[in-house]
Amino acid sequence: MESHENPELAEVLERCRCGDELAWEALVRQFQSRVYGIAIYYIGDPEDARDLAQEIFIRVYRHLELCVDSRMFLPWLICISRNACIDHIRRKKARFWTANVPADDMLKLPAAGPNPEEQWVSNSRRRSIYRALRNLTARNREVIILREILGLSLEEIAGLLSVPLGTVKSRINRARIELAQNVMAPGVQSGGCE
Asked: How much is the pLDDT for 115?
């Protein structure tokens, strides 16, 4: 896993640590869609996901001094986001697959311009994949989100989940098979335009 230094991010993080409010706003704007995306995939409810995204940024702000290397900021942010989602689920005593969020509800989210969620649901094939993703087992959905949606490397996923690299590879393979079967299942595939 090779990461390259991002001098702009390093500067923004340093300015945030010094209390620069404009730098903090810039950092939140840069990563808010990603944090919200993680929350919506884990939680399923748009309102809860928005509230949780705010909580995640509060955690990040309070612990920003722990992330001194800008190359590690994104994995650190994803780890905090994931842990906050899991904590939220435990508090609600819910399961990943209990909340079914209709894809049409995702269109009602306010945004200044197209965001990743709006782009995701604007295409009928992508809506079918989203429905299929919601029907995956919790373990399989998590590895698909981490690998295919968030773009983490296999090594990053292994570290995040505290499992061997071989286990990550086999989980991803099984998850892809289950996702393909769900996409091809009647009712899921016929997502079409609504």
From this structure: 57
How far, in whole angstroms, is CA 128 from its chain's centroid?
18
- The two tokens of residue 148 are 């295919």
How do the domains of the chain map onto residue ranges? 1-106, 123-194
pLDDT for residue 35: 93
pTM of the model: 0.57
Question: What one-character-per-residue DSSP string does 13-69 give?
Answer: HHHHHTT-HHHHHHHHHHHHHHHHHHHHHHH--HHHHHHHHHHHHHHHHHTGGG---
Fold of 1-106: Rna Polymerase Sigma Factor; Chain: A (1.10.1740)
pLDDT digits (tens, 9 = 90+) for 19-49: 899 999 999 999 999 999 889 888 888 899 9
User: According to the CATH classification, is domain 123-194 in 1.10.10.10?
Assistant: yes
